[in-house]
Amino acid sequence: MNASAKRLRTVFVVVPCIFMIATLVLPAMNGLLLSFDHNGPSLANYKILFDDSMFWRALGNNLLVPFGSVIVEFVLGLALALTLTARRNRSALIETAAILPFAIPEIVILTLARYIFLPRGYLNGAIAMTGMHPLPWLSPRSPLAIFTVIVVDAWHVTPVVMLMLMAGLQTIPAELYEAARLDGAGTFATFRFVTLPMLMPAIVGALILRGIDALRIFSTVLVLTGPEGVPVLSTYSYSLWDDAQKPHEAMAASMILALMVTIIGIGGLLVARRFSRDDGALA
Amino acid sequence: MNNSLKAARVALNAFVLVAAVLPLYLLAKQSVTPELETFAWPPHWIPHHLTLSHFISVFAVNELRSAVLRSLAVAAISAMIATVLGAMLAHAMARSSIAQRIGFSTVSGIRLLPMIAVAIPLGIILATVGIYDSPTGIGLAIVHGAIAIPTAALTLYAAFVAIPLEIEEAAWIDGASPLRIFLTIDLPMARASIATALILCFILSWDEFGFALLVQQTNRTLPPLLYYYTVFGNVGPASALALLMMIPAICVVVALGPSLRGALTAGSSR
Amino acid sequence: MADLEIHNLTRTFPSGGGVFDISLTVESGEFLVLLGPSGCGKTTLLRLIAGLENPDSGEIKIGGANTTRRESIAMVFQNFALYPHMTVFQNIAFPLKLRHVAREETERRVKESSAKAGLTVDLRRYPRELSGGERQRVALARALVREPQIILMDEALASLDAQLRSSLRLELKTFQRRTGRTFVYVTHDQVEALALADRLVVMRNGRVEQAGRPQEIFDRPQSEFVAAFVGNPPMNFFIAERSPTGGSLAVDGIDFKIKPPDGCPAQIKLGIRPNDLHLDAGEGRVALEVVVESVEFSGATYIVYAKLGNTSIRAELPQCVDTGAHLTLFFDSARVHLFDPSTGRRIDTR
Fold first, then answer.
1. Across chain A, which distance is largest between two alpha carbons, in Å?
2. B170: chain C residues, CB-CB within 8 Å
3. B18 and B73 inside one domain
4. CA–CA separation, C49 vs C185, rounded Å?
5. How far is CA A153 from CA A67, A69, A163, in A?
6. By the 8 A CB rule, do C76 and C153 touch?
7. B120 and B201: one domain?
8. Which are the contacts of C110, defined by CB distance < 8 A and separation ≥ 6?
């Protein structure tokens, strides 16, 4: 059995992996080469970027927005996961409603968000009804626009964080809570000393996955503010390619993003590995 | 303290309901409101006039109709590619630790690639092959197939791990070749997960915006088309189109419910 | 005619298990049982015969040919390995389908082998709708349908409950006689092994410890390990020493009145089965004075735990005795087993 089964397994690994690598990794490699090509091999494309103030704004935003978005997602996602897994308060309606934003296509969520946050949109309409001043939610270059981008990005993805944390919560045995209650722990003490430590592996895993995804933010910014309102590296690269017709500089910008994602991703994995080793005592 | 917790819980539930339902209502409202009324200030919360013209225009305008068909074709073909290749990878990963290591590292490596770093040079390659911006959307279907393989593989991996080795060995003793075992024993036993994988990959492609925007520049699929409608001002048709786009996803959530949720977290990626 | 010949078969695993240098011949129509504790290599040996594992060295000849031919071997797995997505009929017909057997022929052979396996359920049902015993019969029918020379079974009754197990045991033996197939059966259950085997192979640490008829294994175990493993309740073991006169063996200073064999070491392992200890003196039996410590009722008999001086002893008696009672037990010196304490091998008195 072994020889022919092994041959089949080899084919089964090689074919899909080659397909993924040929379709996704090889183009990225080609892009890496192009980013060093400015009428011959040179660092000129990168130098042009470093002289562009828009690049530095994009780089800054590409750290700020994912960071804010992940924090909002985790606070909301954890609160939702805790409420929805509490046995007495289970509600299928709330659960479905909480998952809904993720089931809706991202572009539809963004379309909606645009109609809500536009200067003459529903949010300002509601504010005007209360007699207060409408706010420029999407005004380019404003901190408020950064805030809006963070909220909208988190809106779409919070259900994913919630589901991951719910999966983690469900692995905590009920006896642990009962034991804590018998030991006299209150709601917050139970959370602090039972739930949170037991949930830590799920939290770390979700943080890494979501962190990597958040760094690649593109459509939220493009739809809400256009490529230059709250530029991030992806939209900056896109506008270099699409509007400015400078594909090589666009590649240089996207390679810096790729480098950033790789460093943060691998760093996160190392932290997670060390964490799971420490966690041995708990298990 | 318990009272304040309860209040917080009620507030959270209310927030969730409003966040989920109100925007959908507004979208539906816009799709049946005449164009002029959508620009009213302050905005109308309830439509003063009703019209079906936006929906009619979605189906009357050639560009929209072909975008719907193209999106369907791209999603169906890419789901097929991803599920076939994902099933192969998942089966090897479930049966060999070396394959598992190769599979996991390729899949996580793929996840580290930003869309934009792939899409621009890929466009150049697709152009040389002659399928860039193809009217059939075949180039996009291939890309979507590749990015959906991890989702399909992770969904199916659990299913194949659950099949006892004993059953494959019995089939081998009965005289079946390894390929035959895969086709007649493993795949039928994993059919529920295969359906889940197909649906997830279909939705992934149906929703995907970045690659679609860059690869199908003029022969657009639905997401980039909706983007242009939204940004360039046709509120009514954009809302009608957005509602149509939600149909598959909503159907899936309602129909598959809980079984889908585990799969969503296993394979979630944008 | 030998159906299956195994020569110097070795297969090792990185974890340390496996089988080492095994040679074995199985006659046509024989019911061979491989018995041993878990990890003794019996399942590995079966999988090597099946061709599920490849040997490091050595060879397996089936029907005289030097290959593991899948055509001549069928196997019944521990959990039956029925295909859950196929009906009972499709399960049994699967080997025939792979061999492109015609429709009518398939139907005839499926019916025939399910009848032989005692399967009476509707063949259109699915395995999940069947009871454990019925599943077992489906697995047997599937093994039989392509008329193999040899049927391999891996702990095939282990996942059933005790009552069903003993009735299926009987059925299996009849089935084997009726079909005339060669069976190789793996188990760790000695009751099952003694009941089923024409020939029994006791394995330990990847090697054959003893092979022979069940009665032979029980009556003349060739090693201390076999003596301890086969038989329930397990055999009593004592360290015996030659008495100063050298004329007999003594345990803890108590004379057992057994003549030590020539050239035996100063110390010797002495074994008596609990059911070889009797309450009546009989003819020429040796007497032992013991004090009863506790008694267990085991249905037909009583297991008596007693002290012989400072040594514990177990006896299986037909009647109950009182705890604390002083008792005289008798045994036949011919029923005593002697083992070399350094090698564990049997020392023959005759």
1. 78
2. 75, 77, 81, 83
3. no
4. 12
5. 11, 6, 17
6. yes
7. yes
8. C89, C92, C93, C96, C123, C141, C145
Question: Rounded to whole angstroms, how far apart are CA atoms B170 and B176?
Answer: 9
Same domain, A148 and A18: no
Contacting residues for A4 by C-beta, under 8 A, at least 6 apart = B177, B178
Nearest partner of C280 among C332, C202, C338, judged by Cα: C332
Summarised one tens digit per residue, pLDDT across range C99-127 is: 999 999 999 999 999 998 889 999 999 99
- The range of the structural domain enclosing residue A142 comes to 43-281
Nearest Cα residue in chain C from B164: C81
Q: Residue A128 is encoded by which pair of tokens? A: 């005007």
B198/chain C closest Cα distance in angstroms: 20
Average pLDDT, stretch A98-126?
88
At position A179, the amino acid (one-letter code) is A
Q: The tokens of C149 are what?
A: 């020379």
- Give the pLDDT confidence of C187-202 residue by residue, as tens digits: 999 989 999 999 999 9
* pLDDT band (50, 70, 90) for residue C8: very high
Answer for the pair A120, B43: CB distance below 8 angstroms, yes or no. Answer: yes
Tokens representing A36 are 């060093």
Closest by CA position to A230, among listed A50, A62, A48, A72: A62
How far, in Å, are A156, B95, B140, B214, C103 from residue B81 at the CA level?
27, 22, 12, 21, 35
Total domain count, chain A: 2
- Phi-psi bin for C274: left (phi > 0), alpha (psi -120 to 50), beta? alpha
Of the pLDDT bands very low, low, confident and very high (cuts 50, 70, 90), residue A280 is very low
- Set of chain B residues whose Cβ sits within 8 Å of the Cβ of A245: none
CB-based contacts of A185, cutoff 8 Å, min separation 6: A193, A194
C-alpha to C-alpha distances, C291 to A145, A227, C324, C331, nearest whole angstrom: 93, 96, 6, 16
Phi–psi pair at C329, nearest 5 degrees: -110, 145
- Asked if residues C195 and C236 have their Cβ atoms less than 8 Å apart, the reply is no
Beta-carbon separation of C75 and B189 below 8 A? no
Q: How far apart are CA A107 and CA B222, in angstroms?
A: 9
Question: How far, in Å, CA of B200 to CA of B156, rounded?
Answer: 12
What is the residue-wise DSSP string for B154-202? HHHHHHHHTS-HHHHHHHHHTT--HHHHIIIIIHHHTHHHHHHHHHHHH
d(CA C291, CA C322): 10
- State which CATH number among 1.20.1250.20, 3.40.50.410, 2.60.40.1930, 2.40.50.140 fits the domain covering C234-347: 2.40.50.140
Considering chain A, what is the average pLDDT of its residues? 88
A2 lies within 8 A of chain C by CB: yes
Q: Which of A86-100, A175-189, C335-349 has the lowest mean pLDDT?
A: A86-100
Residues C302 and C321 sit within 8 Å (Cβ to Cβ): yes
Residues C340 and C334: beta-carbon distance below 8 Å? no
**Statement to judge: residues B58 and B47 lie in one domain:** no
Residues B227-236: what's their mean pLDDT? 85
Q: Label the pairing between strands C150-154 and C73-76.
A: parallel
C-alpha separations of A241 from A215, A250, B114, B117 in Å: 20, 5, 15, 11
Is ipTM over 0.95?
A: no
- C52 part of contact set with chain A, CB < 8 Å: yes
Contact yes or no for B206/B75 (Cβ under 8 A): yes
pLDDT of residue B262: 53
Q: Which pair of structure tokens corresponds to residue C243? A: 């008495």
Mention the CATH class of domain C2-227.
Answer: alpha beta
The size of the A-C interface in CB pairs under 8 A is 5
Q: What is the DSSP string of C63-89?
A: TTBSS--GGGEEEE-TTTT--TTS-HH
- From chain A, the residues in CB contact with C51 under 8 A are 1
Delimit the domains of chain C by residue range: 2-227, 234-347
